[in-house]
Task: structure prediction
Amino acid sequence: MKEYVISKNDAGQRLDRWLAKTVPLLPGPLAQKYIRLKRVKVNGKGSKRDVRLQIGDVLQLYINDEFFQQPSEENAFLSVFQPRLDLVYEDEHLLLVNKRPGLVVHPDETERVNTLITHIQAYLYQKKEWSPYREHSFAPALCNRIDRNTGGIVIAAKDAETLRIMNQKIRDREISKYYLAIIHGKMNPPSGKLEGFLLKNEDKKQVKVFDHPISGGKSAATLYRTLQSRNGLSLVECELLTGRTHQIRAQFAAAGHPLLGDGKYGREKDNKRYGRSFQALYSYRLSFDFTTDGGILDYLNGKYFQVSQVDFVDEYFPNT
Result:
């Protein structure tokens, strides 16, 4: 329990607004619940959320200590009252989460709280499967990343051993990642392999594709096959053989067939014609194809996981 005495500077505020300012990590809906449950007392009694505080009022807050910390990237999960996760699979070691387009995976300069990893940590904290306040506690971590406006399956490790194994399997290409994408036009041939070297421009947050090795460039390879073509668009399945930044987006654009909706590598006028404002790209399937020992995760070998629905497929290629 923590106790506060209202000073001249805080007098006149509503109780709920004072509480939001004083305990910023406490989610608003939870604060309202605590007020209703009389875990927030004014002069020793329960109170309504819209009561105006007076000089000298004594407030007693029966709230868990962790909510009184200063907000930081490490404790942002406390601010998430109801985690929003579309779980594809979960067991004692990991989560497979279907990330929605528009959600960043990690905190950045534009978003601190509403991120995929924050929602995952809040989910596991509220389930009492994880707490950063235990000695030597491991923080749940992502094993792979997906761009903000790309949707699809992200792997999250619940323990350090899972994170180590997954990172190694990804590096050794023992986890196959499949994407669905819609491109402008038709690929010729309909199936094949895109290869090149990608050079990243950090200032523009963009990559350029070269057909020859270049200083600072990284090799990139993508298998693709056309599933359907209609109305000037093609639905393609892509398998990443390497995992470079913007790999699929940049390679198809370099081949003359940018992704539908891609404002960074495509043409705005073409995207407007189809009413799509962000890239039609989805990491829809993961396959665990271990060729070496998987340790505590060996039970995953030979299994695959797939999302049940991809919005742009339903919109542009119904009945596929």
Remarks:
- The domain at 2-68 is CATH 3.10.290.10 (Structural Genomics Hypothetical 15.5 Kd Protein In mrcA-pckA Intergenic Region; Chain A).
- The chain has a mean pLDDT of 94.
